[in-house]
């Protein structure tokens, strides 16, 4: 065991325990978190280097003593627990009459430190910056490694998400990894049975809107589905599943009220607009709907009826599409219907200008 002491420096295990405590009490200081993770990972890898300058006999002896399997991702177990760190305190001064013995918390076991290290390395394998990931969602540290792997396995084998899609999902919604599997299964069942999403399209639906997995079925997904089907009259909600995570009160009703009360469009025509173009619910009133409405009414001088019949008007860029083509129509003295003016390719639009 003499060669083992040359690989594990005195006090390294104790410092590893202290870094474990730092990681369990992550603060908002991202620099502190970054240093803790980097230092802990360095100590973990220095304890068990993959390339040792020892001969084959010493390497085999070390593996037998530590019970290290040959695979790099296997769990590591020490036969004997590490010795606790010796803490030296400054003796009390002669002026003090009483001395208070400090109370020390026992260091965490090496097994818990090892599990934390394996968890960090596993999360790091997705090539996502751990600092913002753990800062924005600290429960990841308290979630067991087995649960993390089970969730990722479910996403990969059941929903059939490829590795890049899983990485994107974890980056956007890290809380998915901490949800109970029963919650994820409940969402998938809702999408298949109630929203009528086809099985072959399920992975695309989740990839486009990962927050579907973190939205509660009873309080968000199902009420929104009923609103889109009943109030708006959308029959194919499975083509607009990205809307299911939206709030009816905060997002849908506010836009309906704007078209009806501010623009002066009848309630019936307002509902008809959203039925024809459900993605209209996703557009910002301030940055999209309001400026384009003013341009259509003031600059273009068109009637609201054209907007009701062609709500896709709001999907085109005001600076790159609507304004340039309107000006060219004015220069040529041509008035084209909104669909023909905006949907036509550049070549076809030029042909219309030459007629």
UniProtKB/TrEMBL annotation:
<dbReference type="GO" id="GO:0003676">
    <property type="term" value="F:nucleic acid binding"/>
</dbReference>
<dbReference type="InterPro" id="IPR038538">
    <property type="entry name" value="MTERF_sf"/>
</dbReference>
<keyword id="KW-0804">Transcription</keyword>
<keyword id="KW-0809">Transit peptide</keyword>
<dbReference type="InterPro" id="IPR003690">
    <property type="entry name" value="MTERF"/>
</dbReference>
<dbReference type="GO" id="GO:0006353">
    <property type="term" value="P:DNA-templated transcription termination"/>
</dbReference>
<keyword id="KW-0806">Transcription termination</keyword>
<protein>
    <submittedName>
        <fullName>Mitochodrial transcription termination factor-related protein</fullName>
    </submittedName>
</protein>
<keyword id="KW-0805">Transcription regulation</keyword>
<feature type="compositionally biased region" description="Polar residues">
    <location>
        <begin position="93"/>
        <end position="102"/>
    </location>
</feature>
<comment type="similarity">
    <text>Belongs to the mTERF family.</text>
</comment>
<dbReference type="Pfam" id="PF02536">
    <property type="entry name" value="mTERF"/>
</dbReference>
<feature type="region of interest" description="Disordered">
    <location>
        <begin position="81"/>
        <end position="111"/>
    </location>
</feature>
């Amino acid at each position: 065991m003499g060669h083992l002491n040359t690989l594990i420096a005195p006090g390294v295990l104790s410092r590893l325990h202290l870094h474990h405590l730092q990681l369990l009490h992550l603060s908002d200081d991202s620099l502190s978190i970054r240093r803790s993770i980097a230092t802990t990972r360095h100590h973990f890898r220095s304890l068990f280097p993959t390339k040792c300058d020892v001969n084959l006999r010493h390497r085999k002896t070390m593996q037998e003593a530590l019970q290290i399997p040959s695979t790099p991702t296997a769990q590591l177990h020490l036969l004997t627990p590490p010795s606790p760190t010796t803490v030296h305190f400054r003796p009390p001064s002669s002026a003090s009459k009483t001395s208070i013995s400090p109370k020390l918390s026992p260091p965490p076991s090496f097994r818990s430190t090892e599990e934390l290290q394996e968890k960090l390395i596993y999360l790091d394998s997705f090539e996502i910056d751990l600092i913002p990931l753990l800062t924005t969602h600290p429960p990841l540290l308290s979630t067991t490694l087995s649960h993390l792997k089970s969730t990722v396995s479910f996403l990969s084998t059941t929903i059939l998400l490829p590795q890049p899609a899983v990485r994107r999902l974890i980056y956007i919604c890290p809380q998915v990894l901490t949800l109970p599997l029963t919650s994820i299964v409940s969402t998938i069942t809702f999408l298949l049975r109630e929203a009528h999403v086809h099985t072959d399209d399920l992975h695309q639906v989740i990839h486009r809107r990962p927050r579907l997995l973190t939205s509660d079925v009873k309080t968000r997904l199902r009420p929104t589905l009923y609103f889109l089907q009943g109030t708006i009259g959308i029959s194919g909600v499975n083509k607009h599943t990205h809307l299911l995570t939206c709030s009816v009160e905060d997002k849908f009703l506010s836009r309906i009220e704007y078209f009806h009360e501010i623009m002066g469009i009848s309630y019936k025509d307002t509902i008809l607009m959203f039925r024809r173009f459900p993605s209209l619910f996703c557009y910002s009133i301030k940055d999209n709907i309001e400026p384009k409405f003013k341009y259509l009414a003031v600059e273009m001088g068109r009637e609201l009826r054209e907007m009701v019949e062609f709500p896709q008007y709001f999907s085109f860029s005001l600076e790159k599409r609507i304004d340039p083509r309107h000006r060219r129509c004015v220069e040529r003295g041509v008035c084209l219907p909104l669909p023909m003016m905006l949907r036509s390719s550049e070549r076809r639009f030029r042909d219309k200008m030459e007629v």
